[in-house]
Design a protein that fits this description.
Layout lengths: L13 H6 L17 E4 L6 H9 L3 E4 L11 H15 L2 H4 L6 H23 L1
Parallel strand pairs: 1-2
Length: 124
């Protein structure tokens, strides 16, 4: 994960984020290092980033600026927005008070474990 300042544009972190994806274990053979597809909102709608994604073999599914809402990406984005909402339920993560990145990431890891534990308890 890469932490950046709140005043940084998200699209500038797209390629570094893709470079940090760890290998995914699965079937026999070389592990996958990239996703097949990338879902993104209108903030990422730029030809430069679409070309960079296609070069890496990733199919971009990016909402286009100026087009009416209802492209169908909301179905996938809802999962992300819901998860961020769950993380904001932890007061320490709602506003980042920690100056050190490692401490903030540790709190993120703890929150993720607690959220997962709660959902597993509901299933059992």
């Amino acid at each position: 994960m890469s932490l950046t300042g709140g005043n940084r544009n998200d699209v500038t972190q797209l390629i570094p984020l893709l470079d940090k994806i760890p290998p995914v274990a699965g079937t026999v053979g070389r592990p996958r290092r990239r996703p097949d597809m990338l879902f993104a909102d209108r903030g990422y709608d730029h030809d430069k980033y679409r070309r960079l994604l296609w070069k890496r073999g990733i199919r971009p599914a990016i909402a286009e600026r100026g087009q009416p809402h209802g492209s169908g990406l909301g179905i996938f984005r809802w999962v992300v927005e819901r998860t961020i909402s769950w993380l904001h339920g932890f007061r320490r993560l709602r506003v980042r008070w920690e100056r050190r990145d490692d401490i903030h990431e540790a709190f993120l890891g703890l929150a993720t474990c607690l959220i997962t534990h709660r959902h597993v308890q509901r299933l059992c």
